[in-house]
Amino acid sequence: MKFTQTAIPDVVIIEPAVFGDARGWFMESFNLPKFVAGLAEFGLPAPRPFVQDNHSCSQAGVLRGLHFQRTPHAQGKLVRVTKGRAFDVAVDIRSGSPTFGRWVGVELTAANNKQLWLPEGFAHGFVALEDDTHFLYKTTDVYAKDCEGSIAWNDPDIGIRWPLDGLKVHLAAKDEQAPCLKHANL
C-alpha cells in the first residue's frame, strides 16, 4: 500500500497494490496493521476501530455532503469507489486547527483504486461523476441522527472547486438547507 499525505496532512490518500494477470486481478483493500503503520509513518495516530460500513449508489451529478458527526459520535472515514467515479472532499472543521476551513479533494474511481482517510473532525462530501457510482466507506463510529451536521457544499468561504463539467447537481433536501461553515453548529 502506498500512503500519500494531502495538503491537509491528517487526510491521507491510500493506494493499494493491485496484482493482475490473464484471470483478472486481486487487491487487499484493507489491512489494519498496514493502515496503522502507514499513518504512523506520518506521525498520525491510529484511529478508533471501524464499526460500520456504508455503501451508496449515485447517478451522475448527485452531490452528498458536506456531512459530519459531532462528539460523542464523531466519525473517521476510510472511503473508496468500487464502480464509477466520484470527486471526494474533506473539509477541516476542527476548532483551533491551522487548516480550519480548508479543503482537499481527490478523484476516486473503480479504475484507480484510491482510498481517502479522513479522521474525526472533518466534514465529508462527494459528487458522482458518472451514473451508477458505488461509494463505500468504513466509519469509526455509528451513525447518530442527534449528532449529525452539515455544511453547504457551495460555501464561498470554503471555495471547493467541484469538477462538475456541465453536470446538473442533485441534492437531498437537508443538503439544500445546510448552513455555511461560519453558521454551522460544529
From TrEMBL:
Q: Which reaction does it catalyse?
A: dTDP-4-dehydro-6-deoxy-alpha-D-glucose = dTDP-4-dehydro-beta-L-rhamnose
Keyword Glycoprotein listed? The answer is no
One example of the protein's molecular function in GO is:
dTDP-4-dehydrorhamnose 3,5-epimerase activity
The record's Gene Ontology cellular component field reads: cytosol
Where do the catalytic residues lie?
67 (proton acceptor), 137 (proton donor)
Q: What is this protein called?
A: dTDP-4-dehydrorhamnose 3,5-epimerase
Q: What family is reported?
A: Belongs to the dTDP-4-dehydrorhamnose 3,5-epimerase family.
Role summary: Catalyzes the epimerization of the C3' and C5'positions of dTDP-6-deoxy-D-xylo-4-hexulose, forming dTDP-6-deoxy-L-lyxo-4-hexulose.
Task: Give the source species.
Answer: Aquabacterium soli
Taxonomically, the superkingdom here is Bacteria
PANTHER family assigned: DTDP-6-DEOXY-D-GLUCOSE-3,5 EPIMERASE, THYMIDINE DIPHOSPHO-4-KETO-RHAMNOSE 3,5-EPIMERASE
Keyword Isomerase: yes or no?
Answer: yes
Name the pathway.
Carbohydrate biosynthesis; dTDP-L-rhamnose biosynthesis
Q: How does it assemble?
A: Homodimer.
